TrEMBL record, chain A:
Pfam families reported for this sequence: F-box_5 (PF18511), LRR_6 (PF13516), Transp_inhibit (PF18791)
Name of the protein described by the UniProt record: F-box domain-containing protein
Ranges of residues in domain F-box: 39-80
Region (Disordered): 1-32
Gene3D superfamilies, sorted: 1.20.1280.50, Ribonuclease Inhibitor
Localization per record: Nucleus
Lineage per the UniProt record: Eukaryota, Viridiplantae, Streptophyta, Embryophyta, Tracheophyta
Compositionally skewed regions (Basic and acidic residues) per UniProt: 10-23
CDD domains: F-box_AtTIR1-like
GO MF terms held by the record: auxin binding
From TrEMBL, chain B:
Originating species: Deinandra increscens subsp. villosa
Keywords of the record: Auxin signaling pathway, Nucleus, Repressor, Transcription, Transcription regulation
Protein family membership: Belongs to the Aux/IAA family.
InterPro entries in UniProt: AUX/IAA_dom, AUX_IAA, PB1-like
The keyword Oxidoreductase appears for this protein: no
UniProt feature, compositional bias: Polar residues: 26-54
GO cellular component, one term: nucleus
Subunit record text: Homodimers and heterodimers.
PROSITE patterns: PB1
Region (Disordered): 1-65
Role, per record: Aux/IAA proteins are short-lived transcriptional factors that function as repressors of early auxin response genes at low auxin concentrations.
Name used for this protein in its record: Auxin-responsive protein
Domain PB1: 90-176
Compartments in which it is found: Nucleus
Amino acid sequence: MMLLQPSMDPNRKRAKSVDRVDSVDSGSESFESTRKCGFPDEVLERVLSLIDSHKDRSSVSLVCKDWYNAERWSRRDVFIGNCYSVSPEIVAARFPRVRSVTLKGKPRFSDFNLVPEDWGADVHPWLSVFSTAYPFLEELRLKRMAVTDESLEFLATNFHGFKALSLLSCDGFSTDGLKAIATHCKNLTELDIQENGIDDLGGHWLSCFPESLTSLEVLNFASLNSEVSFDALEKLVSRCKSLRVLKVNRNVSLDQLQKLLLHCPLLMELGTGTFMQELISGPVTEFKTMFSNCKNLVTLSGLWDTTPLYLPVIYPACASLTFLNLSYATLRSDELANLLAHCKSLRRLWLLDTVGDKGLEAVGSCCPLLEELRVFPADPFDQEIFLGVTESGFVSVSHGCPKLRYVLYFCRQMTNAAVATIARNCPDFTHFRLCIMNPGQPDYLTKEPMDDAFGSVVKTCTKLQRLAISGLLTDRTFEYIGKYAKNLETLSVAFAGSSDLGMESVLKGCMKLRKLEIRDCPFGNAALLSGLTKYESMRSLWMSACNVTMNGCRALAKEKPRLNVEVMRDEEGSDDSQAHKVYVYRSVAGPRRDAPPFVLTL
Amino acid sequence: MDLINFEATELRLGLPGSSTDEPEIKSTTSPVNTNKRSSPEMDSNVSDENGSSRSPPPTKAQVVGWPPVRSYRKNILQGRKSDQPEMGSGMYVKVSMDGAPYLRKVDLKVYKSYGELLKGLQEMFKCIIGLYSEREGYKSEHAPTYEDKDGDWMLLGDVPWEMFITSCKRLRIMKSCEVIES
């Protein structure tokens, strides 16, 4: 039987090992074996089964052989951050009683078209193994995996107790696959379809839910384009008494939504359809009570096409909202201000930059409990229409929302001074993702690089786990990061740095680094190889359009056989000595056997 | 005639829509644009480190995968540009006329029929525009065309008005002689 650990002798000092299915273990310790201290295995298993955190379970499994075994038998949820780091056979061998699997596939930059189609991350081999190993599998959550209709049909017909399916940023399937799920999964509690590359062939899939299906708790089809049968939807919603999350798509009209809400008063999360009526003469008053029965609503999203006339319809629900996603509603500053005056309890807020700096001032004054803010660009490619938001909006928010932990901010201008102020106001940042949309743009007032901005973030925000940097940046930024960002786990870099020193500083200094993704930076082989001893403790490294060559990659691959060093060729095949796209990750499964022709494993 | 209209019809050499005292432009410095590469394969930005000088506005050459916005969101926003009203509850679309140096905007919701729309456009551009008919050909020197949701350029008048206003992304008044017969 294949075991993951190099040795199960509990008396030996246990070295840090790459043989993990899930996230990085927090450290290596040496342990003496405990005698079987009269603790029956069942009791140990029962105790360990109460532990949910993957990190904790990793630590637990390192204590000794007994604990390793008790942990693996009691493991119900498996999280696999990189589907190629391990094989389904290895997972099935180690964890015999799994009910829930989370799988992530392609590198994150595939979301931005940097990874060619047919790269891989096919879910089917996993399903094949699981159909025999985990016939009672209940939950499957996939992110950036390649999924086909055949796979969805296989899933629906081979796992009889299957309950929950979540697909985020996946591609390769169509609504026919959803038909199979709806038709065959008799105990379905969750169907969550988000932002996938799906071939939308029509809304008939929703009508495939049988009348006997009453177990649905989560239904999210907000990102699908085709209209579903409202009659089928209404009947489905009214017979699923435990429905707590409902996110419909844009085709569902306001009066249809009103009818739906009558059937699910227990709803906690709602995604509306189009939030206006064509005929302006239609009375808005008839919608005024729409939300008065939704006592449990904490999350609201959708709000497509909403106008100042209709937005107030949601006011009665606002006081208890903790998460408001307005990132598909082109609101202006005054509309947002009026709305936020009702939203005192907000913790998370997603916006479009159409609200402008004035809108963000309103955020600062109305939402003192805010922990997360995401501001998306309404017009990322066209500068003519909106300036969007600037440094001043961000500063306003930081003054009013000292509890901010998570920020994603797209803007067209920023200054070092502003970011320093923001960091001072909000020292608790754990996720700081700043995207100055023009690559390599300096501080627009001083014309200096933006080094000091990120320097102030890493110096002040000691809990920082995730950082995305942008603007004109020299190696100094990376020196700051390496020196101060001791808790940093994920770093995204684009169009930055001056030399190898930059990347080297980060690899040397950031002890907890797990994911590093770099594009269009002047980092070469020396930088790549400086991380030789580090990559096995990381999930992955991505480098594209840098100065790395094939020889550098080969050197890395040779030194570290437990890393998969993959190079993606450009179609033009212009310069074969340059490594245009490099993806390096640790794996216990060896080189990929399903690599397409353009992926070379060195 | 009131002063604003007079200004609007003034012929100038500037870019469409620009003027010397645009109220919307912030008084702070507009974003500095360094000579950044537009292709990911080009060399890095080392040379531009030391306080780049102001350069002309960047071309709209797009870098692959930048800014990092997911495809789903990008597609929604691009679709939105066509049918999302930009001001209040109107349905404003850009109108260009061949030969005119600047574009205008019209609110399609204000009109109830093609006839009304053409009248409005004629007043705006001070020209005669006629619908094409199979029998009579082009009734005037200018032909109205529009870009639909699929990105195709169509002649006005073939589809019912209600269908037209939901699918029209922008209008272009062409010289009749330049319209290619389909």
